[in-house]
Structure formats: C-alpha cells, structure tokens
Please model this.
Amino acid sequence: MLTPNTPYWQTDQKKHGQILTDRNDINRCIENILLTPLGAVPHHPDFGANLNAFLDRPIDSVRGLLVREIYRAIEQWEPRVKIENVNINYNAMKNIVRLNVDVFWILVGSQATGTINVLVL
Model:
C-alpha cells in the first residue's frame, strides 16, 4: 500500500484496502468518537461520547445535554477541527426511534469546512 501524499489519512475499517483522506478521514474520526461509548476502550476509558446516558430520556429535555456532550467529545479527541454547529434530528416512527446528529466543522488553521451526519440510534 502506498502512503497518500496528504497529512490526514487512515485505512478504511469498513472497506478493506481503501484509504480515507482529508475530510473523509476527519469525518470517520468524528464518527468513531460519537459512536464509541465512554469506557468501551480498555486503555482509554475516557475516549468516546457519553450519548448512551440520554437514551431513555425525553429528547426535549436532553437536546442541550446531547449537544454539549458532542462538543466535549469532539473537542477532546479531534483537535484538527473546531465545531461550527451541531444539529440533533429526532424521528420516532412506530416503535423505532432514530437520532441523527449533524456536525458542521472547520479545519483549524484553514478555511476548509466539513459536515458529517451520524446515526447515533
């Protein structure tokens, strides 16, 4: 495998043999942070986001807490970006609940921007 000519890259855990670069690399890192529950990584128990703490609570009462936890986790674990905005989208249909998070970010030291949508639940 050749090393990409970019400072931001990683191998893709979802597609064997593929490489993620630049915005895709940063978005995958943000996705990994948000989808990893606190305590799930043995030697880094503070890695991830504590979004599971809000699963059984009414969305209107925890929306601000969710946004704050998302900011905290990304600011702690992804220093390459500054968060511009976070949107929480909640959709309940029958017995299925979907919680989507949109994170809008700016690359530190640059004008480059990115957006990622993460299905949390």
In short: The chain has one domain: 9-119.
